[in-house]
From TrEMBL:
Subcellular location: Endomembrane system
Major localisation: membrane
InterPro entries: PPase-energised_H-pump
Membrane topology summary: Multi-pass membrane protein
Lineage, uppermost ranks: unclassified sequences, metagenomes, organismal metagenomes
UniProt keyword list: Hydrolase, Ion transport, Magnesium, Membrane, Translocase, Transmembrane, Transmembrane helix, Transport
Protein name as annotated: Inorganic H+ pyrophosphatase
Annotated transmembrane regions: 5-24, 30-48, 106-123, 129-153, 193-211
Amino acid sequence: MGLSVVGLGIIGISVIFIILNATGEVTTDAVSILTGFSLGASSIALFARVGGGIYTKAADVGADLVGKVEAGIPEDDPRNPAVIADNVGDNVGDVAGMGADLFESYVGALVSAITLGLVATNIGSASHFMAALFPLVIAGVGIVASVIATFFVRGKDGSDPQKALNAGEYTATALVIIASAILSNTFFGNFNAFIAIIAGLVVGTIIGKVTEMYTSEKYK
């Protein structure tokens, strides 16, 4: 689902960006159009997350009350028709709702970066078009790096699954670091954007490690 979410997000923004470029509207006036796309993503995420969460919890509580309390049958028993609504609710809230939420976060971050490129006043020799295009290219590189990293997620019977996930994460991070250094020098003639990307990658990795430390059974 993760690759589908980011893929749809970058496709939507790229289509808008291509249309704006073809009509000569890749200027500061395009900010309102891009923010409109982000607002739409935020709205649908709100509806899917909140509405889906209400349905999910209502179906869950209803199925448990009818099954356990009134009929005296186990949870998720196929004899309880409300289990169907419970399972549908799990998909609506936990899958569709979370996907819409991630889509909104991804689109919001990408639109914010593009907006900074469009309104930047000190970008060196690069044009506003190149500055706005840079986040899209980095996002595309991230998707390609993630696809490549999936081939490094391998585990054996009895092995720690976290190690396999870490291998994929570190592989994708290394690929993005290399690509961002090249792209930053190509687009702007310096490594300022590369330094910002490195800072984000480092902070993201630290957050993941801190979360693992407080939640993994390997740490006390």
